[in-house]
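REQUEST FORM: STRUCTURE PREDICTION
Request ID: SP-0412
Submitted by: Lab K.M.
Chain count: 1
Length (residues): 164
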Amino acid sequence: MGWGRVFRCKECGWTDEVYLGSGSTYPELYEMAEHKITSGKCGREFKELFEKTPGAATNADKRLHVCGNCGTFHTCFDQSIYEPKEPGVTKLHTEPFSQFCPAVGQEYATPDEIKHQYRLVKEFVYKCQRCGSPMHRYDGHEKLRCPCCGKIAFEEINGYVHWS
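STATUS: Completed
RESULT:
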């Protein structure tokens, strides 16, 4: 199940819906996210680190990333590299993930597995598409700056949105 948020600027009225998580097709998204790393699209350093880290995993959940410079935010895969905390952790799944994406026999690490069975090796830092500055993952508590008017006047409306 994915989730989302709806933000509105109290100053200029700019509104955006942000869809996070992965929904019921996580294994397919995981395969795409891992391919992005292993094909070198995240940089040579990331590719080499992923290949040399035993049991390496990434996280295909979409997260909100915010530019500290211009306030722009984007939803992006986590793309960070994780390693198992203990020997014997496997990414092979023998049970269906969902009725829409069974993924039996596929290798992937779920967000819950990443949280409990893996540790961060290297965080992937996105560059802002608007100004080129580094972006950081939104923690849900910081005040967001409106990408339209630049004011720190965002409010969350309608609470969470659930999607699949």
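NOTES: Residues 2-163 form one domain.
Reviewed by: T.R.
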